[in-house]
Amino acid sequence: MAGVQTAVALREQGFTGTVTLIGAEPHQPYDRPPLSKAVLLGKAEDSAFDVDFEALGIELRLGREVLGVRPDAHRLDTAEGPVPYDVLVLATGAEPIRLPGAEGVPGVHLLRTLDDAERLRPVLARQHDIVVVGAGWIGAEFVTAAREAGCAVTVVEAADLPLAGALPAEVAAPMAAWYADAGATLRTHARVRSVEAGAVLLDDGSRLPADAVVVGIGARPATAWLAGSGIALGTHGEVVADDGLRTSAPDVYAVGDCASFPSGRYGERLLVHHWDNALQGPRTVAANILGKPTGEPAAVYDPVPYFWSEQFGRFVQYAGHHGSADTTLWRGDPSGPAWTVCWLREGRLVALLAVGRPRDLAQGRKLIEAGTPMDATVLTDPARPLKAAAA
Ligand SMILES: Cc1cc2nc3c(=O)[nH]c(=O)nc-3n(C[C@H](O)[C@H](O)[C@H](O)COP(=O)(O)OP(=O)(O)OC[C@H]3O[C@@H](n4cnc5c(N)ncnc54)[C@H](O)[C@@H]3O)c2cc1C
C-alpha cells in the first residue's frame, strides 16, 4: 500500500524520473483490508489496486525479495543482483507474529497476505471448527467472517478482554459481548500451551479440537532485512523516521507499517499499523523527495491517525491518539448498537472511537485536527451533533 501510494504520489506531484516498485509477493499490488472481509468470504476474488502502473511509468518488479541495503553505495541487494538508487523509500510493512511452537503444524494459519486469505477461504467454505488465537482487530474480523460462513469458532485470548493492548478496559468490555452475540466462544485469561494437528492445548489443561487454527497475535515491522545497513531501528524493530519521514541514512525514507515518526501533535513517537497511515504518509515522502524551492519549509508528517474495522455487523472507527491520563467521556450506551467514546486532554478532543456513528467520527476528526476546546455537557449528549460541543 505505502509503496504503491508513494509511486503514485510522486507522479501526481510531477516527478519525471524513473520509479521502480520492488515487492517480494508475486501478485499485482493489492489492498489488505478486504482480505479479512470480502476476499475471505469469497465475495471478491482479489483486491488488486486500480492503478495503471504502465501508464504512470512505474516499473513493477514483483516476486523479488530485497535482501539488504548499502546506503553508502546507494545500492540494494537482491538475489538477481544489486539495484542502484538515487532515492530509496522503505515500505516493507509488517509481518504477523508467529505462535511459538505452531510453525509447520498442519492447519495453522496467519492472515496477512492474499495467499493467506486464499488458503483460509476453503476452510470457511467447509464450515470447519476453528480456534482463533488472539482477540485483536484481525481476530475479530476473522471471527465475523467465519461465523457468517457458519463455522464453529472459539477464540483464545491471554488478556482479560479483547483489544486489551489497544483500548482501555471500560471501552473493550462491551466489545467482549459481541463475540457471544455472534455465536463465538471467547475464552479470556487463556494461554496456548501447544498446538498439534487437530487441537489446541491450553495452559489450564483444556484441549480445544480444531480443524483449523488462525493466529492473530499482532504484527511487527518487516525490517530484519535492514540488519547491518546502519539504518536506525527503534524499540519495536521499526525504522525510526523524522517528521519528514527521512531515516538516519541519506536519501532513504520510510513510510507505512514499517516506520515510526515523531508526532508533533501528540508529543510522542507513533508507530501506526493502519491503512490511512499508508495512504497519507507517502504524500509527505513524495513532497520531500521532490523538494521545495529554497526558503520554503519541507513537508512535515503530523496526521490525526485514523482507522476502521468491520466486526460483528458493526462499523468501528477510531481517530486520534489517546493516553491513560486523558479524560474518557461517553456518548451513548455501550450496550446499544451505536455509541462513541471521546478522550479529552486539557479540555480538547484528542481521540474518539465511534461504533456505528460515522458522523461523530467525521466531525470528531476535524475537531481533533483543529484542537477545539469542548463543552463536556453537550459532548456527552448523543442526541446532539458532536460539533455542537465545540466550546
Ligand atoms: C487482513 C488485514 C486487514 C486489515 N484491515 C484493515 C482495516 O480494516 N482498516 C485499517 O485501517 N487497516 C487495516 N489493515 C492494515 C493495513 O492493511 C496496513 O496498515 C497497510 O497494508 C500497511 O501498508 P504498508 O505498505 O506499510 O505494508 P504492506 O501492505 O504490508 O506492504 C508491504 C509489502 O512489502 C513487501 N516486503 C516486505 N519485505 C520485503 C523485502 N525484503 N523485499 C521486498 N518486498 C518486501 C511485503 O511482501 C508487502 O507486500 C489490515 C491489514 C490486514 C493484514
What does this structure look like?
By secondary structure, the protein is an alpha/beta fold. The protein contains 8 helices and 25 strands. The chain has helices at 2-12, 53-56, 114-125, 137-148, 169-181, 275-290, 358-370, 376-379; strands at residues 19-23, 58-62, 66-70, 75-78, 81-84, 88-90, 94-96, 108-109, 129-133, 152-156, 185-187, 192-196, 199-202, 207-209, 212-215, 219-221, 239-240, 252-254, 259-263, 268-271, 306-311, 314-320, 327-331, 339-345, 348-355. A 5-stranded parallel β-sheet has the order 8-15-9-10-11. α1 (2-12) packs parallel to α6. The radius of gyration is 22 Å and the shape is globular. It starts with a helix and ends in a 12-residue tail after the last helix. Residues 1-3, 22-25, 32-33, 35-36, 65-66, 91-94, 111-112, 138, 222, 225, 256-258, 273-276, 278, 307-309 line the site of flavin-adenine dinucleotide (FAD).
What small molecules are bound in this structure? flavin-adenine dinucleotide
Largest sheet: 5 strands, parallel
Question: Whole-number average pLDDT?
Answer: 97
Question: Outline, from the CA principal axes?
Answer: globular
Structural class computed from helices and strand pairing: alpha/beta
For the terminal residues, how far apart are their CA atoms? Answer: 38 Å
How large is the share of residues in beta strands? 25-35%
The helix fraction, in percent, is 10-25%
- Number of continuous helical runs: 8
Low-confidence stretches: none
What is the count of β-strands? 25
* Sequence of strands across the biggest β-sheet: 8-15-9-10-11
- Gyration radius, to the nearest Å? 22 Å
